[in-house]
């Protein structure tokens, strides 16, 4: 047990957030922790997503830890494999393998007598005084229940489970969905396939990305002057987060309309008026997470590409049958149909004090205290928990704010000053009441607005206020809001 901390810590997941917590613990001199990771390597979402066209639509110099700049970006928007390489580099640099137990998928964690008892699929057991969830948000594929999907004689897979054994070059490929993922896949596949059919249920607002390639010499300069990449990170953060920091409140008409005009101008690059009309959303800009792409509209105008807007009736052995009776014959179906974004820690069976399970605690919808903790679940903390500001921001920046908050709590527990703590019900209810009221003022809750930001009950599950307000509440824990046992 490390001298500086009298408590044992377990981190769930070795993705971006889990690695961040580990690095912060090491920086604080805390070494008695394990990261339990279900897969056999680190990287989380960047390990799992390998689809053609994969990139991050947050600029690459910004999409890094603030303390570990990345001079290796090949483009303004770093490609998926470069981002995964970055995380593996950081993982090795901080020697996180010393703390990581791969192949340990957590099935359950229950709190009894002041200790978290954790069981993994291998049957192994862990005990921890502090349990930190860093399982990510967009992790569990949403595979739609399309009738006949099993009967398809080609190959169908979800975008996050890309089957690289199946050739796509020269094939007829269907992509279902029009979110950020589908837009990237269409752009990445269009030059490789014989036919590309995009099945669109809802058109999307797409902004130009203004992507650009970085030269070898510019990368070399950044490698030699590390302070420069850090400077770029901070400037990108100022500009990018500055633009988005005010949030998507309905009163921000000028902000929203300026973006809409930019998206409309981009849409005008579609020359065929009929196709342009079919690609035009019928809802306000900002209602869904906006999409950045320079290539999507160009890809949609290639002779091998077809936009299908008739509803999918069923999947047949030869392809996709739409409501107009057409059978779209294809070899491969890509389900770019998003994720179960409201899972959070689930399906891990979490049991707090008095045998209350997370399912019971969330029976009326997800509810957390300031995104990081849950009443009745002592010494359990989350990164990117319910209502985190995860829209178009850099998730790394958000995770760093949450981690800085958690480190202050963890230090108190480690020092022995606090044995355990969980947020009070009253403080959590007050906060959630304010949250629900503020949610009503966001554009995401406009009538008819549909996105993964909204749960099945119609509640907003992301941060409704400005990023500045989030930074404020993450500055310092309000211990009066917690039940504390010493
Ligand atoms: P998504 O935004 O949830 O989009 C899913 C798409 O699938 C939607 O177009 C949806 O249509 C469609 N869909 C779902 N079920 C369907 C069904 N049964 N039949 C027909 N269409 C169906 O998912 P995503 O594109 O994977 O993106 C999710 C999030 O991942 C993004 O918002 C972003 O946060 C993150 N992401 C980030 C990047 C990045 O560059 N940073 C890249 C990719 C993804 P409706 O709109 O009609 O529901």
Gist of the model:
The protein is α/β, with parallel strands linked by helices and 486 residues long.
Number of strands: 21
The neighbouring-strand order within the major sheet is 3-2-1-7-19
Taking all Cα atoms into account, the compactness measure Rg is 23 Å
Contiguous uncertain segments of 5+ residues = none
Mean pLDDT across all amino acids: 95
The helical percent reads 25-40%
Bound molecules: NADP nicotinamide-adenine-dinucleotide phosphate
CATH first level of the largest domain: which class? Alpha Beta
What is the assembly state of the chains in this entry?
single chain
User: How many separate domains make up the residues?
Assistant: 2
Beta-strand residue fraction: 15-25%
What's the CATH architecture of the largest domain?
3-Layer(bba) Sandwich
Write the CATH fold name of the largest domain: FAD/NAD(P)-binding domain
**Helices and strands: which structural class?**
alpha/beta
* CATH superfamily membership of the largest domain: FAD/NAD(P)-binding domain
Name the overall outline: globular
Count of helix runs? 13
CA(first)-CA(last) distance: 20 Å
Describe the structure.
The protein folds into two domains: 9-140 and 340-485, FAD/NAD(P)-binding domain (3-Layer(bba) Sandwich), CATH 3.50.50.60; 149-205 and 249-335, FAD/NAD(P)-binding domain, CATH 3.50.50. The strands form six sheets. A five-stranded parallel β-sheet has the order 3-2-1-7-19, with helices on one face. A five-stranded parallel β-sheet has the order 8-17-9-10-13, covered by helices on one side. The longest helix is centred in the last third of the chain and has 20 residues, at 395-414. Strand 5 (115-120) and strand 6 (125-128) form a beta hairpin. The chain starts with 8 loop residues before the first strand and ends with a strand. It has helices at 16-27, 45-48, 80-93, 180-189, 216-224, 226-244, 253-267, 273-278, 296-300, 358-361, 395-414, 425-439, 467-475, and strands at residues 9-12, 33-36, 100-101, 106-112, 115-120, 125-128, 130-133, 155-158, 172-176, 195-199, 206-207, 291-292, 305-308, 312-316, 319-322, 327-329, 332-335, 349-351, 380-382, 420-423, 482-485. 29% of the residues lie in helices and 17% in strands. It is globular. The mean pLDDT is 95. Helix 1 (16-27) crosses helix 11. By secondary structure, the chain is α/β, with parallel strands linked by helices. Bound molecules: NADP nicotinamide-adenine-dinucleotide phosphate. The site of NADP nicotinamide-adenine-dinucleotide phosphate has 24 residues, from helix 4.
């Amino acid at each position: 047990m490390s001298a500086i901390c009298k408590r044992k810590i377990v981190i769930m997941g070795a993705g971006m957030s889990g690695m961040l917590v580990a690095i912060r613990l090491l920086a604080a001199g805390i070494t008695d922790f394990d990261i339990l990771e279900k897969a056999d390597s680190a990287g989380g979402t960047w390990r799992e997503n390998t689809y053609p066209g994969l990139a991050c639509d947050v600029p690459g110099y910004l999409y890094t830890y603030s303390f570990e700049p990345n001079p290796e970006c090949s483009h303004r928007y770093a490609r998926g494999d470069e981002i995964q390489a970055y995380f593996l580099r950081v993982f090795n640099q901080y020697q996180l393998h010393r703390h990581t137990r791969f192949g340990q998928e957590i099935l359950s964690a229950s709190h009894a007598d002041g200790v978290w008892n954790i069981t993994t699929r291998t049957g192994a057991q862990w005990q921890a005084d502090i349990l930190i969830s860093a399982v990510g948000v967009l992790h569990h594929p949403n595979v739609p229940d399309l009738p006949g999907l099993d009967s398809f004689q080609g190959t169908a897979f979800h975008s996050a489970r890309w089957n690289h054994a199946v050739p796509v070059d020269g094939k007829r490929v269907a992509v279902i969905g029009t979110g950020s993922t589908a837009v990237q896949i269409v752009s990445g596949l269009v030059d490789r396939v014989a036919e590309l059919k995009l099945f669109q249920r809802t058109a999307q607002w797409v902004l130009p990305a203004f992507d650009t390639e970085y030269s070898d010499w510019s990368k070399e300069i950044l490698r030699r002057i590390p302070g420069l990449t850090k400077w770029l990170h901070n400037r990108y953060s100022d500009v990018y987060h500055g633009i988005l920091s005010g949030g998507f409140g309905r009163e921000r008409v000028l902000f929203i309309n300026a973006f809409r005009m930019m998206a409309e101008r981009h849409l005008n690059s579609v020359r065929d008026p009929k196709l342009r009309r079919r690609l035009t959303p019928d809802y306000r800009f900002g209602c869904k997470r906006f999409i950045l792409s320079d290539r999507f509209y160009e890809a949609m105008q290639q002779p091998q590409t077809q936009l299908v807007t008739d509803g999918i009736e069923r999947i047949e052995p030869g392809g996709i049958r739409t409501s107009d009776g057409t059978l779209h014959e294809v070899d491969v179906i890509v389900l770019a149909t998003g994720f179960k974004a409201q899972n959070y820690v689930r399906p891990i069976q979490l049991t707090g004090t008095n045998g209350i399970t997370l399912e019971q605690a969330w029976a009326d919808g997800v509810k957390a205290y300031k995104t990081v903790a849950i009443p009745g679940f002592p010494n359990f903390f989350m990164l990117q928990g319910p209502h985190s500001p995860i829209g178009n921001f850099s998730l790394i920046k958000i995770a760093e704010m949450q981690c800085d908050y958690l480190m202050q709590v963890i230090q108190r527990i480690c020092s022995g000053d606090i044995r355990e703590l969980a947020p009070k019900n009253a403080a959590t209810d007050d906060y959630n009441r304010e949250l629900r009221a503020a949610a009503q003022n966001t554009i995401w809750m406009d009538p008819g607005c549909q996105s993964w930001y909204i749960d099945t009950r119609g509640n907003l599950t992301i941060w409704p206020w400005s990023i500045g307000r989030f930074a404020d509440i993450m500055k310092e824990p309000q211990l009066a809001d917690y039940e504390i046992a010493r």
